[in-house]
Amino acid sequence: MQQGSDCLPLSHLGPCGSETFPLPQKHEVTSPRASAGASRMRQTVIFYLSFLLGLALSLASLVCVCVWSARWRGGFAWDGSALQFNWHPVLMVAGLVVLYGNGAVLYRVPLTWGQNKLPWKLLHAALMLLALVLSVVGLCAVFGFHNAKGTPNLYSLHSWIGITATALFAMQWVAGLAVFLLPWSPTSLRKLLKPVHVWLGGSILSLSIAACISGINEKLFFVLKGSTEAQTYAALPPEALLANSLGALIVAFGLVVFLILSNQKWQRPDSRPEELAYTPLLQEENE
Amino acid sequence: MQQGSDCLPLSHLGPCGSETFPLPQKHEVTSPRASAGASRMRQTVIFYLSFLLGLALSLASLVCVCVWSARWRGGFAWDGSALQFNWHPVLMVAGLVVLYGNGAVLYRVPLTWGQNKLPWKLLHAALMLLALVLSVVGLCAVFGFHNAKGTPNLYSLHSWIGITATALFAMQWVAGLAVFLLPWSPTSLRKLLKPVHVWLGGSILSLSIAACISGINEKLFFVLKGSTEAQTYAALPPEALLANSLGALIVAFGLVVFLILSNQKWQRPDSRPEELAYTPLLQEENE
Protein backbone atom coordinates (compact mmCIF):
# COMPACT_ATOMS: atom_id res chain seq x y z
CA MET A 1 0.00 0.00 0.00
CA GLN A 2 1.95 3.04 1.13
CA GLN A 3 5.50 2.88 -0.28
CA GLY A 4 4.45 -0.31 -2.06
CA SER A 5 5.12 -2.29 1.11
CA ASP A 6 2.87 -5.01 2.53
CA CYS A 7 3.62 -4.13 6.11
CA LEU A 8 3.51 -1.14 8.44
CA PRO A 9 6.22 -0.32 10.96
CA LEU A 10 4.97 -0.58 14.55
CA SER A 11 7.61 1.75 15.92
CA HIS A 12 5.01 4.50 16.22
CA LEU A 13 3.40 2.64 19.10
CA GLY A 14 6.39 3.52 21.24
CA PRO A 15 6.69 2.55 24.89
CA CYS A 16 3.38 2.41 26.74
CA GLY A 17 4.82 4.94 29.13
CA SER A 18 5.00 7.65 26.47
CA GLU A 19 3.52 10.86 27.82
CA THR A 20 2.86 12.51 24.48
CA PHE A 21 0.62 11.31 21.69
CA PRO A 22 2.14 8.99 19.10
CA LEU A 23 1.85 10.20 15.54
CA PRO A 24 -0.34 8.71 12.85
CA GLN A 25 1.67 6.10 10.94
CA LYS A 26 1.79 8.05 7.68
CA HIS A 27 3.53 11.00 9.28
CA GLU A 28 5.89 8.71 11.14
CA VAL A 29 7.05 7.26 7.88
CA THR A 30 7.20 10.39 5.78
CA SER A 31 7.95 13.31 8.12
CA PRO A 32 11.29 14.38 9.59
CA ARG A 33 11.82 14.02 13.33
CA ALA A 34 11.32 17.71 14.09
CA SER A 35 7.94 17.70 12.36
CA ALA A 36 6.97 14.53 14.26
CA GLY A 37 7.84 16.12 17.60
CA ALA A 38 5.89 19.27 16.74
CA SER A 39 2.85 17.19 15.78
CA ARG A 40 3.02 15.18 19.05
CA MET A 41 3.30 18.39 21.01
CA ARG A 42 0.33 19.90 19.13
CA GLN A 43 -1.82 16.84 19.92
CA THR A 44 -0.85 17.03 23.60
CA VAL A 45 -1.62 20.75 23.80
CA ILE A 46 -5.01 20.32 22.06
CA PHE A 47 -5.86 17.46 24.43
CA TYR A 48 -5.04 19.47 27.55
CA LEU A 49 -6.99 22.47 26.24
CA SER A 50 -10.02 20.21 25.68
CA PHE A 51 -9.57 18.58 29.08
CA LEU A 52 -9.30 21.94 30.85
CA LEU A 53 -12.34 23.22 28.94
CA GLY A 54 -14.25 20.14 30.14
CA LEU A 55 -13.11 20.76 33.73
CA ALA A 56 -14.12 24.43 33.53
CA LEU A 57 -17.56 23.58 32.07
CA SER A 58 -18.17 20.91 34.70
CA LEU A 59 -17.19 23.26 37.54
CA ALA A 60 -19.38 26.02 36.06
CA SER A 61 -22.31 23.53 35.90
CA LEU A 62 -21.75 22.63 39.55
CA VAL A 63 -21.66 26.28 40.62
CA CYS A 64 -24.79 27.05 38.56
CA VAL A 65 -26.86 24.18 40.01
CA CYS A 66 -25.75 25.02 43.58
CA VAL A 67 -26.61 28.71 43.11
CA TRP A 68 -29.98 27.77 41.58
CA SER A 69 -30.93 25.49 44.49
CA ALA A 70 -29.42 27.62 47.26
CA ARG A 71 -30.21 31.14 46.05
CA TRP A 72 -33.39 30.75 43.97
CA ARG A 73 -35.03 27.65 45.46
CA GLY A 74 -34.44 28.38 49.16
CA GLY A 75 -31.54 26.09 50.09
CA PHE A 76 -31.30 22.56 51.46
CA ALA A 77 -32.88 20.32 54.09
CA TRP A 78 -33.78 16.61 54.47
CA ASP A 79 -37.32 16.88 55.79
CA GLY A 80 -39.56 15.88 52.87
CA SER A 81 -40.08 19.53 51.88
CA ALA A 82 -39.15 21.31 48.65
CA LEU A 83 -35.80 21.99 50.34
CA GLN A 84 -35.15 18.23 50.28
CA PHE A 85 -35.98 18.18 46.57
CA ASN A 86 -33.24 20.78 46.06
CA TRP A 87 -30.61 18.12 46.74
CA HIS A 88 -31.87 16.23 43.67
CA PRO A 89 -30.54 18.51 40.87
CA VAL A 90 -27.31 19.23 42.77
CA LEU A 91 -26.49 15.58 43.43
CA MET A 92 -27.51 14.34 39.97
CA VAL A 93 -25.41 17.00 38.21
CA ALA A 94 -22.48 16.37 40.58
CA GLY A 95 -22.68 12.56 40.26
CA LEU A 96 -24.18 11.62 36.92
CA VAL A 97 -22.58 14.45 34.91
CA VAL A 98 -19.54 16.12 36.54
CA LEU A 99 -17.86 13.19 38.31
CA TYR A 100 -19.03 10.67 35.73
CA GLY A 101 -17.81 12.68 32.72
CA ASN A 102 -14.44 13.51 34.24
CA GLY A 103 -14.01 9.89 35.42
CA ALA A 104 -14.72 8.69 31.88
CA VAL A 105 -11.83 10.64 30.33
CA LEU A 106 -9.29 9.87 33.07
CA TYR A 107 -7.31 7.34 31.00
CA ARG A 108 -6.91 9.85 28.18
CA VAL A 109 -4.68 12.15 30.26
CA PRO A 110 -1.15 11.60 28.85
CA LEU A 111 0.32 12.35 32.28
CA THR A 112 -1.04 8.97 33.45
CA TRP A 113 0.52 6.95 30.62
CA GLY A 114 4.06 6.72 31.97
CA GLN A 115 2.91 4.79 34.97
CA ASN A 116 1.41 1.48 36.06
CA LYS A 117 -2.24 1.51 35.00
CA LEU A 118 -3.57 -0.07 38.20
CA PRO A 119 -3.68 3.07 40.42
CA TRP A 120 -5.48 4.95 37.62
CA LYS A 121 -7.88 2.05 37.22
CA LEU A 122 -8.59 2.19 40.96
CA LEU A 123 -9.08 5.97 40.75
CA HIS A 124 -11.47 5.50 37.77
CA ALA A 125 -13.47 2.92 39.78
CA ALA A 126 -13.45 5.13 42.91
CA LEU A 127 -14.60 8.26 41.01
CA MET A 128 -17.37 6.25 39.36
CA LEU A 129 -18.44 4.71 42.68
CA LEU A 130 -18.62 8.17 44.25
CA ALA A 131 -20.61 9.37 41.21
CA LEU A 132 -22.99 6.41 41.62
CA VAL A 133 -23.45 7.02 45.36
CA LEU A 134 -24.19 10.73 44.80
CA SER A 135 -26.71 9.81 42.08
CA VAL A 136 -28.48 7.26 44.29
CA VAL A 137 -28.67 9.78 47.17
CA GLY A 138 -29.99 12.30 44.64
CA LEU A 139 -32.74 9.83 43.70
CA CYS A 140 -33.51 9.22 47.40
CA ALA A 141 -33.97 13.00 47.81
CA VAL A 142 -36.70 13.15 45.17
CA PHE A 143 -38.37 9.87 46.24
CA GLY A 144 -38.54 11.16 49.84
CA PHE A 145 -39.98 14.49 48.65
CA HIS A 146 -42.63 12.74 46.51
CA ASN A 147 -43.54 10.28 49.28
CA ALA A 148 -43.96 13.08 51.84
CA LYS A 149 -46.27 14.93 49.45
CA GLY A 150 -48.15 11.80 48.30
CA THR A 151 -46.99 12.33 44.71
CA PRO A 152 -46.47 9.13 42.67
CA ASN A 153 -42.89 8.25 41.71
CA LEU A 154 -41.54 7.36 38.28
CA TYR A 155 -44.41 8.49 36.08
CA SER A 156 -42.76 11.21 33.97
CA LEU A 157 -40.53 10.52 30.96
CA HIS A 158 -37.81 12.50 32.79
CA SER A 159 -37.95 9.98 35.64
CA TRP A 160 -37.96 7.00 33.26
CA ILE A 161 -34.81 8.25 31.53
CA GLY A 162 -33.11 9.22 34.80
CA ILE A 163 -33.80 5.90 36.54
CA THR A 164 -32.66 4.01 33.43
CA ALA A 165 -29.40 5.99 33.35
CA THR A 166 -28.74 5.28 37.05
CA ALA A 167 -29.65 1.58 36.77
CA LEU A 168 -27.40 1.13 33.71
CA PHE A 169 -24.64 3.02 35.55
CA ALA A 170 -24.93 0.64 38.55
CA MET A 171 -24.81 -2.40 36.22
CA GLN A 172 -21.85 -0.91 34.37
CA TRP A 173 -19.96 -0.31 37.61
CA VAL A 174 -20.52 -3.84 38.93
CA ALA A 175 -19.66 -5.40 35.54
CA GLY A 176 -16.58 -3.14 35.28
CA LEU A 177 -15.39 -4.26 38.73
CA ALA A 178 -15.96 -7.95 37.94
CA VAL A 179 -14.51 -7.94 34.44
CA PHE A 180 -11.76 -5.29 34.42
CA LEU A 181 -10.54 -4.89 38.00
CA LEU A 182 -10.78 -8.26 39.75
CA PRO A 183 -8.08 -10.67 38.63
CA TRP A 184 -10.09 -13.81 37.81
CA SER A 185 -11.73 -12.57 34.62
CA PRO A 186 -10.12 -14.16 31.52
CA THR A 187 -8.42 -11.98 28.92
CA SER A 188 -10.85 -13.11 26.22
CA LEU A 189 -13.80 -11.81 28.29
CA ARG A 190 -12.02 -8.47 28.88
CA LYS A 191 -11.39 -8.08 25.15
CA LEU A 192 -14.97 -8.97 24.34
CA LEU A 193 -16.52 -6.59 26.87
CA LYS A 194 -14.24 -3.57 26.59
CA PRO A 195 -15.99 -2.08 23.51
CA VAL A 196 -19.32 -2.73 25.25
CA HIS A 197 -18.05 -0.93 28.39
CA VAL A 198 -16.92 2.05 26.29
CA TRP A 199 -20.18 2.20 24.27
CA LEU A 200 -22.39 1.82 27.34
CA GLY A 201 -20.30 4.43 29.18
CA GLY A 202 -20.99 7.01 26.46
CA SER A 203 -24.64 5.98 26.26
CA ILE A 204 -25.13 6.48 30.00
CA LEU A 205 -23.70 10.01 29.70
CA SER A 206 -26.13 10.73 26.83
CA LEU A 207 -29.03 9.49 28.97
CA SER A 208 -27.83 11.57 31.94
CA ILE A 209 -27.75 14.69 29.80
CA ALA A 210 -31.24 13.98 28.41
CA ALA A 211 -32.49 13.45 31.99
CA CYS A 212 -30.87 16.71 33.17
CA ILE A 213 -32.31 18.76 30.29
CA SER A 214 -35.82 17.37 30.73
CA GLY A 215 -35.60 17.75 34.53
CA ILE A 216 -34.46 21.40 34.44
CA ASN A 217 -37.10 22.18 31.80
CA GLU A 218 -39.85 20.50 33.85
CA LYS A 219 -38.82 22.19 37.10
CA LEU A 220 -38.84 25.64 35.48
CA PHE A 221 -42.37 25.09 34.12
CA PHE A 222 -43.45 23.95 37.63
CA VAL A 223 -42.00 26.84 39.60
CA LEU A 224 -42.11 29.77 37.15
CA LYS A 225 -45.89 30.08 36.77
CA GLY A 226 -45.66 33.56 38.26
CA SER A 227 -48.30 35.88 39.66
CA THR A 228 -47.32 38.46 37.04
CA GLU A 229 -46.46 37.84 33.40
CA ALA A 230 -42.87 39.01 33.97
CA GLN A 231 -42.32 36.16 36.45
CA THR A 232 -43.36 33.34 34.14
CA TYR A 233 -40.85 31.06 32.40
CA ALA A 234 -41.90 32.53 29.02
CA ALA A 235 -40.64 35.98 30.14
CA LEU A 236 -37.20 34.49 30.87
CA PRO A 237 -36.69 36.00 34.34
CA PRO A 238 -33.17 35.73 35.87
CA GLU A 239 -33.86 32.31 37.44
CA ALA A 240 -34.91 30.90 34.04
CA LEU A 241 -31.81 32.34 32.39
CA LEU A 242 -29.60 30.81 35.10
CA ALA A 243 -31.20 27.35 34.86
CA ASN A 244 -31.31 27.38 31.04
CA SER A 245 -27.61 28.30 31.12
CA LEU A 246 -27.03 25.36 33.48
CA GLY A 247 -28.58 23.11 30.81
CA ALA A 248 -26.40 24.66 28.11
CA LEU A 249 -23.26 24.17 30.26
CA ILE A 250 -24.15 20.51 30.87
CA VAL A 251 -24.62 19.95 27.13
CA ALA A 252 -21.35 21.73 26.30
CA PHE A 253 -19.52 19.61 28.89
CA GLY A 254 -21.03 16.44 27.38
CA LEU A 255 -19.87 17.45 23.89
CA VAL A 256 -16.31 18.02 25.16
CA VAL A 257 -16.32 14.58 26.85
CA PHE A 258 -17.56 12.96 23.62
CA LEU A 259 -14.87 14.85 21.68
CA ILE A 260 -12.15 13.49 23.97
CA LEU A 261 -13.56 9.94 23.89
CA SER A 262 -13.98 9.94 20.09
CA ASN A 263 -10.38 10.90 19.26
CA GLN A 264 -8.45 7.66 18.76
CA LYS A 265 -5.11 9.49 18.94
CA TRP A 266 -5.96 10.43 22.50
CA GLN A 267 -6.44 6.85 23.67
CA ARG A 268 -3.98 5.42 26.19
CA PRO A 269 -1.47 3.56 23.97
CA ASP A 270 -2.21 0.12 25.49
CA SER A 271 -5.95 0.68 24.86
CA ARG A 272 -5.68 1.31 21.12
CA PRO A 273 -6.95 -1.21 18.59
CA GLU A 274 -3.52 -1.56 17.02
CA GLU A 275 -2.06 -2.61 20.35
CA LEU A 276 -2.62 -6.34 20.12
CA ALA A 277 -1.21 -7.58 23.41
CA TYR A 278 -3.74 -7.51 26.26
CA THR A 279 -2.73 -8.06 29.83
CA PRO A 280 -5.04 -8.76 32.76
CA LEU A 281 -5.60 -5.45 34.44
CA LEU A 282 -4.35 -6.39 37.89
CA GLN A 283 -0.95 -7.30 36.45
CA GLU A 284 1.82 -4.77 36.66
CA GLU A 285 1.31 -2.98 33.38
CA ASN A 286 3.48 -0.40 31.69
CA GLU A 287 6.43 -0.72 33.96
CA MET B 1 5.38 -6.75 18.87
CA GLN B 2 3.21 -9.78 18.36
CA GLN B 3 5.41 -12.65 17.06
CA GLY B 4 8.40 -10.50 17.81
CA SER B 5 7.98 -8.77 14.44
CA ASP B 6 8.31 -5.03 13.86
CA CYS B 7 5.61 -4.94 11.22
CA LEU B 8 1.99 -5.95 10.71
CA PRO B 9 0.69 -7.57 7.54
CA LEU B 10 -1.83 -5.38 5.73
CA SER B 11 -3.45 -8.26 3.87
CA HIS B 12 -6.38 -8.18 6.31
CA LEU B 13 -7.55 -4.93 4.77
CA GLY B 14 -8.56 -6.84 1.68
CA PRO B 15 -10.12 -5.14 -1.33
CA CYS B 16 -12.30 -2.15 -0.50
CA GLY B 17 -15.13 -3.99 -2.17
CA SER B 18 -15.25 -6.67 0.50
CA GLU B 19 -18.81 -7.13 1.65
CA THR B 20 -18.01 -8.86 4.93
CA PHE B 21 -16.07 -7.49 7.86
CA PRO B 22 -12.30 -7.98 7.82
CA LEU B 23 -10.99 -9.79 10.84
CA PRO B 24 -8.93 -8.29 13.63
CA GLN B 25 -5.28 -8.69 12.73
CA LYS B 26 -4.50 -11.11 15.56
CA HIS B 27 -7.01 -13.67 14.29
CA GLU B 28 -5.82 -13.21 10.72
CA VAL B 29 -2.36 -14.20 11.78
CA THR B 30 -3.16 -17.01 14.17
CA SER B 31 -6.43 -18.62 13.04
CA PRO B 32 -7.08 -21.08 10.23
CA ARG B 33 -9.07 -19.91 7.20
CA ALA B 34 -12.28 -21.62 8.28
CA SER B 35 -12.24 -19.87 11.64
CA ALA B 36 -11.54 -16.54 9.91
CA GLY B 37 -14.53 -16.98 7.62
CA ALA B 38 -16.78 -17.89 10.55
CA SER B 39 -15.65 -14.80 12.46
CA ARG B 40 -16.29 -12.53 9.45
CA MET B 41 -19.71 -14.06 9.00
CA ARG B 42 -20.49 -13.57 12.72
CA GLN B 43 -19.53 -9.87 12.53
CA THR B 44 -21.71 -9.42 9.44
CA VAL B 45 -24.69 -11.15 11.07
CA ILE B 46 -24.34 -9.10 14.30
CA PHE B 47 -24.14 -5.90 12.25
CA TYR B 48 -27.28 -6.67 10.26
CA LEU B 49 -29.16 -7.67 13.44
CA SER B 50 -28.19 -4.31 15.01
CA PHE B 51 -29.08 -2.43 11.84
CA LEU B 52 -32.48 -4.13 11.57
CA LEU B 53 -33.11 -3.48 15.28
CA GLY B 54 -32.35 0.20 14.64
CA LEU B 55 -34.72 0.26 11.65
CA ALA B 56 -37.47 -1.43 13.69
CA LEU B 57 -37.02 1.00 16.61
CA SER B 58 -37.05 4.02 14.30
CA LEU B 59 -40.20 2.83 12.52
CA ALA B 60 -41.87 2.11 15.88
CA SER B 61 -40.96 5.66 17.03
CA LEU B 62 -42.50 7.08 13.86
CA VAL B 63 -45.72 5.09 14.30
CA CYS B 64 -45.91 6.08 17.99
CA VAL B 65 -45.49 9.81 17.35
CA CYS B 66 -48.02 9.74 14.48
CA VAL B 67 -50.58 7.86 16.60
CA TRP B 68 -50.01 10.27 19.50
CA SER B 69 -50.57 13.37 17.33
CA ALA B 70 -53.37 11.93 15.18
CA ARG B 71 -55.30 9.83 17.74
CA TRP B 72 -54.71 11.60 21.08
CA ARG B 73 -54.01 15.21 20.05
CA GLY B 74 -56.68 15.59 17.38
CA GLY B 75 -54.78 15.32 14.09
CA PHE B 76 -53.14 17.86 11.80
CA ALA B 77 -53.76 21.28 10.25
CA TRP B 78 -51.70 24.37 9.30
CA ASP B 79 -53.87 27.12 10.78
CA GLY B 80 -52.00 28.32 13.87
CA SER B 81 -54.08 26.05 16.12
CA ALA B 82 -52.95 23.18 18.35
CA LEU B 83 -53.43 20.98 15.27
CA GLN B 84 -50.59 22.88 13.62
CA PHE B 85 -48.43 22.24 16.69
CA ASN B 86 -49.04 18.49 16.16
CA TRP B 87 -46.78 18.57 13.10
CA HIS B 88 -43.89 19.59 15.38
CA PRO B 89 -43.27 16.28 17.21
CA VAL B 90 -43.97 14.21 14.07
CA LEU B 91 -41.57 16.17 11.85
CA MET B 92 -38.82 16.49 14.46
CA VAL B 93 -38.88 12.75 15.23
CA ALA B 94 -39.03 11.90 11.49
CA GLY B 95 -36.23 14.32 10.56
CA LEU B 96 -33.89 14.83 13.49
CA VAL B 97 -34.08 11.25 14.80
CA VAL B 98 -35.32 8.62 12.30
CA LEU B 99 -33.88 9.91 9.00
CA TYR B 100 -30.83 11.43 10.67
CA GLY B 101 -29.93 8.28 12.64
CA ASN B 102 -30.40 5.93 9.70
CA GLY B 103 -28.51 8.30 7.39
CA ALA B 104 -25.62 8.36 9.87
CA VAL B 105 -25.07 4.58 9.74
CA LEU B 106 -25.49 4.23 5.96
CA TYR B 107 -21.76 3.75 5.24
CA ARG B 108 -21.58 0.91 7.78
CA VAL B 109 -23.80 -1.38 5.69
CA PRO B 110 -21.40 -3.98 4.20
CA LEU B 111 -23.65 -4.29 1.14
CA THR B 112 -22.46 -0.81 0.08
CA TRP B 113 -18.75 -1.60 0.35
CA GLY B 114 -18.36 -3.47 -2.93
CA GLN B 115 -19.28 -0.41 -4.93
CA ASN B 116 -18.13 3.08 -5.80
CA LYS B 117 -18.64 5.26 -2.73
CA LEU B 118 -20.03 8.26 -4.62
CA PRO B 119 -23.67 7.11 -5.01
CA TRP B 120 -23.77 6.22 -1.28
CA LYS B 121 -22.26 9.59 -0.44
CA LEU B 122 -24.97 11.28 -2.51
CA LEU B 123 -27.64 9.15 -0.77
CA HIS B 124 -26.15 10.10 2.64
CA ALA B 125 -26.27 13.80 1.67
CA ALA B 126 -29.82 13.45 0.27
CA LEU B 127 -31.15 11.65 3.37
CA MET B 128 -29.56 14.28 5.60
CA LEU B 129 -30.96 17.13 3.48
CA LEU B 130 -34.45 15.61 3.70
CA ALA B 131 -33.95 15.21 7.47
CA LEU B 132 -32.92 18.88 7.71
CA VAL B 133 -35.87 20.09 5.64
CA LEU B 134 -38.34 18.09 7.77
CA SER B 135 -36.75 19.49 10.95
CA VAL B 136 -36.97 23.08 9.69
CA VAL B 137 -40.63 22.62 8.69
CA GLY B 138 -41.17 21.08 12.15
CA LEU B 139 -39.72 24.23 13.72
CA CYS B 140 -41.92 26.42 11.47
CA ALA B 141 -44.96 24.50 12.76
CA VAL B 142 -44.25 25.42 16.39
CA PHE B 143 -43.17 29.01 15.61
CA GLY B 144 -46.44 29.53 13.69
CA PHE B 145 -48.45 28.05 16.55
CA HIS B 146 -46.70 30.27 19.13
CA ASN B 147 -47.04 33.39 16.97
CA ALA B 148 -50.77 32.78 16.43
CA LYS B 149 -51.25 32.43 20.21
CA GLY B 150 -48.93 35.32 21.13
CA THR B 151 -46.63 32.96 23.03
CA PRO B 152 -42.94 33.91 23.01
CA ASN B 153 -40.58 31.65 21.07
CA LEU B 154 -37.32 30.10 22.28
CA TYR B 155 -37.59 30.63 26.00
CA SER B 156 -37.62 27.04 27.31
CA LEU B 157 -34.50 24.91 27.72
CA HIS B 158 -36.17 22.40 25.39
CA SER B 159 -36.30 25.04 22.66
CA TRP B 160 -32.71 26.13 23.29
CA ILE B 161 -31.47 22.54 22.88
CA GLY B 162 -33.70 21.85 19.87
CA ILE B 163 -32.73 25.01 17.98
CA THR B 164 -29.04 24.36 18.75
CA ALA B 165 -29.35 20.80 17.38
CA THR B 166 -31.01 22.05 14.18
CA ALA B 167 -28.54 24.92 13.70
CA LEU B 168 -25.56 22.60 14.20
CA PHE B 169 -27.18 20.12 11.79
CA ALA B 170 -27.54 22.83 9.12
CA MET B 171 -23.89 23.87 9.60
CA GLN B 172 -22.80 20.23 9.50
CA TRP B 173 -24.70 19.64 6.25
CA VAL B 174 -23.25 22.70 4.51
CA ALA B 175 -19.72 21.93 5.74
CA GLY B 176 -20.16 18.27 4.70
CA LEU B 177 -21.20 19.34 1.19
CA ALA B 178 -18.32 21.79 0.84
CA VAL B 179 -15.61 19.57 2.29
CA PHE B 180 -16.56 15.97 1.46
CA LEU B 181 -18.75 16.10 -1.65
CA LEU B 182 -17.61 18.98 -3.83
CA PRO B 183 -14.33 18.25 -5.61
CA TRP B 184 -12.28 21.35 -4.83
CA SER B 185 -11.62 20.63 -1.17
CA PRO B 186 -8.01 19.46 -0.63
CA THR B 187 -7.32 16.00 0.81
CA SER B 188 -5.57 17.49 3.85
CA LEU B 189 -8.72 19.42 4.76
CA ARG B 190 -10.88 16.28 4.35
CA LYS B 191 -8.55 14.32 6.63
CA LEU B 192 -8.56 17.12 9.19
CA LEU B 193 -12.33 17.56 9.26
CA LYS B 194 -13.51 13.96 9.01
CA PRO B 195 -13.13 13.19 12.76
CA VAL B 196 -14.86 16.52 13.50
CA HIS B 197 -17.72 15.56 11.12
CA VAL B 198 -18.10 12.17 12.87
CA TRP B 199 -17.94 13.67 16.39
CA LEU B 200 -20.35 16.50 15.57
CA GLY B 201 -22.69 14.02 13.87
CA GLY B 202 -22.97 11.93 17.06
CA SER B 203 -23.27 15.08 19.19
CA ILE B 204 -26.18 16.38 17.10
CA LEU B 205 -28.00 13.06 17.59
CA SER B 206 -27.42 13.31 21.37
CA LEU B 207 -28.85 16.85 21.34
CA SER B 208 -31.83 15.71 19.23
CA ILE B 209 -32.61 12.96 21.71
CA ALA B 210 -32.33 15.36 24.67
CA ALA B 211 -34.64 17.79 22.84
CA CYS B 212 -37.17 15.01 22.09
CA ILE B 213 -37.21 13.74 25.70
CA SER B 214 -37.63 17.22 27.18
CA GLY B 215 -40.26 18.12 24.55
CA ILE B 216 -42.41 15.01 25.12
CA ASN B 217 -42.08 15.45 28.90
CA GLU B 218 -43.09 19.14 28.68
CA LYS B 219 -46.05 18.46 26.36
CA LEU B 220 -47.41 15.74 28.67
CA PHE B 221 -47.27 18.10 31.68
CA PHE B 222 -49.07 20.76 29.59
CA VAL B 223 -51.90 18.60 28.28
CA LEU B 224 -52.40 16.00 31.02
CA LYS B 225 -53.55 18.32 33.81
CA GLY B 226 -56.87 16.45 33.83
CA SER B 227 -60.25 17.34 35.31
CA THR B 228 -60.05 14.14 37.39
CA GLU B 229 -57.00 12.69 39.14
CA ALA B 230 -57.05 9.63 36.84
CA GLN B 231 -56.48 11.88 33.82
CA THR B 232 -53.33 13.58 35.11
CA TYR B 233 -49.84 12.68 33.93
CA ALA B 234 -49.03 11.34 37.42
CA ALA B 235 -51.75 8.67 37.03
CA LEU B 236 -50.09 7.44 33.80
CA PRO B 237 -53.21 7.32 31.59
CA PRO B 238 -52.89 5.55 28.19
CA GLU B 239 -51.72 8.72 26.40
CA ALA B 240 -48.90 9.18 28.92
CA LEU B 241 -47.86 5.54 28.55
CA LEU B 242 -47.84 5.90 24.76
CA ALA B 243 -45.78 9.12 24.76
CA ASN B 244 -43.37 7.87 27.47
CA SER B 245 -42.90 4.73 25.35
CA LEU B 246 -42.18 6.98 22.36
CA GLY B 247 -39.39 8.58 24.42
CA ALA B 248 -38.05 5.15 25.40
CA LEU B 249 -38.08 4.00 21.74
CA ILE B 250 -36.20 7.15 20.64
CA VAL B 251 -33.56 6.55 23.32
CA ALA B 252 -33.24 2.86 22.39
CA PHE B 253 -32.83 3.81 18.71
CA GLY B 254 -30.13 6.34 19.64
CA LEU B 255 -28.23 3.71 21.64
CA VAL B 256 -28.31 1.30 18.67
CA VAL B 257 -27.00 4.05 16.35
CA PHE B 258 -24.19 4.85 18.82
CA LEU B 259 -23.42 1.11 19.06
CA ILE B 260 -23.07 0.85 15.28
CA LEU B 261 -20.98 4.04 15.03
CA SER B 262 -18.68 3.03 17.92
CA ASN B 263 -17.68 -0.36 16.49
CA GLN B 264 -14.48 0.16 14.49
CA LYS B 265 -14.82 -3.27 12.85
CA TRP B 266 -18.03 -2.05 11.26
CA GLN B 267 -16.42 0.94 9.55
CA ARG B 268 -16.26 0.97 5.76
CA PRO B 269 -12.74 -0.35 5.00
CA ASP B 270 -11.56 2.85 3.28
CA SER B 271 -12.74 4.89 6.28
CA ARG B 272 -10.70 3.00 8.90
CA PRO B 273 -7.70 4.61 10.57
CA GLU B 274 -5.38 1.88 9.28
CA GLU B 275 -6.35 2.69 5.69
CA LEU B 276 -3.80 5.38 4.94
CA ALA B 277 -4.60 6.30 1.36
CA TYR B 278 -7.27 8.98 1.07
CA THR B 279 -8.83 9.89 -2.24
CA PRO B 280 -10.95 12.96 -2.98
CA LEU B 281 -14.52 11.85 -2.67
CA LEU B 282 -15.67 12.74 -6.14
CA GLN B 283 -13.05 10.48 -7.64
CA GLU B 284 -14.05 7.00 -8.71
CA GLU B 285 -13.39 5.12 -5.51
CA ASN B 286 -13.35 1.39 -4.87
CA GLU B 287 -13.68 0.31 -8.44
From TrEMBL, chains A, B:
GO cellular component annotations of the record: late endosome membrane; lysosomal membrane
Protein name (database record): Lysosomal membrane ascorbate-dependent ferrireductase CYB561A3
Lipid bilayer topology: Multi-pass membrane protein
InterPro entries on file: CYB561/CYBRD1-like, Cyt_b561/ferric_Rdtase_TM
Pfam families xrefs: Cytochrom_B561 (PF03188)
Cofactor(s) required, per the database record: heme b
Gene Ontology MF terms: metal ion binding; transmembrane ascorbate ferrireductase activity
Function statement: Transmembrane reductase that uses ascorbate as an electron donor in the cytoplasm and transfers electrons across membranes to reduce iron cations Fe(3+) into Fe(2+) in the lumen of the late endosome and lysosome. Reduced iron can then be extruded from the late endosome and lysosome to the cytoplasm by divalent metal-specific transporters. It is therefore most probably involved in endosomal and lysosomal cellular iron homeostasis.
Catalytic reaction(s) noted: Fe(3+)(out) + L-ascorbate(in) = monodehydro-L-ascorbate radical(in) + Fe(2+)(out) + H(+)
Entry EC number(s): 7.2.1.3
Domain Cytochrome b561: 53-262
Subcellular location: Late endosome membrane; Lysosome membrane
Species classification: Eukaryota, Metazoa, Chordata, Craniata, Vertebrata
Domain of life: Eukaryota
